[in-house]
Amino acid sequence: MSELSPEISERIDALFREAVSSHATSGLAYGVVGADGSLLHSGGAGHSQLVAGEPAAGAFVPGKDSISRIASMSKSFIAASILKLRDEGRLRLDDPVSNYLPEVGTLALPSEDSPALTLRLLLTMSAGLVTDNPWGDRQEAMTAQAFREMIAGGLGFMSVPGTAFEYSNASYVMLGQVIGEVAGVGYEDYVRESFLRPLGMNDTDYERTGLDPERIVTGHRLNEREDALRFEPVEFDSPGVYGAMAGLYSTVADVSRWVRFLSSANAATSEHEDAGYAKLLSRASRREMQQGYRLQRTPVTREGQFDRLRAYGMGLVVEEFPLLGGVISHSGGYPGFGSFMCWHRDSGIGVIVLANSKYAPAPKLSYEVLEVLRQEGQLRGSAGLPLAEGTKRGMAAAIAYLRSGDAAVADEWFSDNMDLDVSREERMRRRAVAEERTGVSLDGEWPEPTVLTPFEVRWDFPRVADKPGLRVHLLMDPRVQPLMQSLTLITLSD
What we know:
Elements: H1 6-21, E1 27-33, E2 39-46, E3 50-51, E4 54-55, E5 68-69, H2 75-87, H3 119-123, H4 144-152, H5 169-183, H6 187-196, E6 219-222, E7 231-234, H7 243-246, E8 249-250, H8 252-263, H9 275-280, H10 283-289, E9 294-295, E10 309-312, E11 317-321, E12 325-334, E13 337-344, E14 350-355, H11 362-375, H12 389-404, H13 407-413, H14 418-421, H15 424-438, E15 450-453, E16 456-461, E17 469-476, E18 484-492
Antiparallel strand pairs: 1-2, 1-14, 3-4, 5-8, 6-7, 9-10, 10-11, 11-12, 12-13, 13-14, 15-16, 16-17, 17-18
Helix pairs in contact: 1-11, 2-5, 12-13
């Protein structure tokens, strides 16, 4: 897929136009990233700067090459840097932070049995430090000396380290300082030379001085109004140690390269991976960033159910949705800016939104775009390792058995648990009941299977009239030359 159809593109564009027309944001740029890292679609809406509710002189409509703050999306670059240093043998994730920042060793921990703060705890938002939004957003210019003095003066804890998720900007500032101690250069230079320049992210940096000023959008705070007059320009802060947690400027086009770099680590897209990526950071380490280590609170539906599972990885958020499936992401909120990047784990397709007003609905819009793509059948892809050869042969045997009930097929392909769990006579009775209820004939043509794992597949048969659907589920056993351990007929009522 090289681009989206005009119909899908228009559905997506309409979402962003409405966000601007409803004054949810002053302006934004967005893009849909393909599995190969190309921009399948991009656009923009609103204005780069508003003054008294009107476009300022020289204002422009943001687009894929306009430059914006990406705020806490920056944390993924710090996490990748720590893992790169780990891969090189220059640190360990379970090292005490005090090995590199002695001031951390003086902190009064919240209980006598609290473990020492480690790099792993900082990476996974598990250190228990007090959540520091929005205070941390105003500390970008803090010097290294002032930061270390702040630590020496003591920090508060929300929970015992290692027991709960607590979002902490200070944790990533510490990690930025660790990078400097280990690499011998500031975290800014390390990120530039390790990732930004090799990936061709030439419009991404911690400082504005080397960026095109004509393409930098202005951030806006929100006052109490609900019309265009609610947007008030915000001055940029100066770079400092807190830039480690949120200081990068970038573009949709550049972030698409970062999304591809990270998403390519997932097995579903590994066959397309550029071998050069592994030279920057191993695929195993990029996958490591995208595992959930600390559960986060998630919204609850009216029915009292969680609408998703969500956990913090390493500089990234890992979510599982009922319909979308696995999504990897990180948001960014900063004085004047709101941003979001995400990608569908299985297909590798992602969405990037960079908005130039605080509290912009960048995450909401991104999920809405993914839902449009899901509805349009664009998020296809199978997670995990390829289908085992034994499973392929077992699939043919399963079809043959359910068509004929041939005892010879069962003798060859049933694991020893199969007849103990359900007798062969009962299996044939269940087949007859399923066919009667659903109107499906298992003697007829079978649909294409859905691969769930290398050893597990299912077939979903088309509905017949208004009758329930039929699903056949096959699970092979764990041996290298697998046999069937489960073959189940499931009637789908809705």
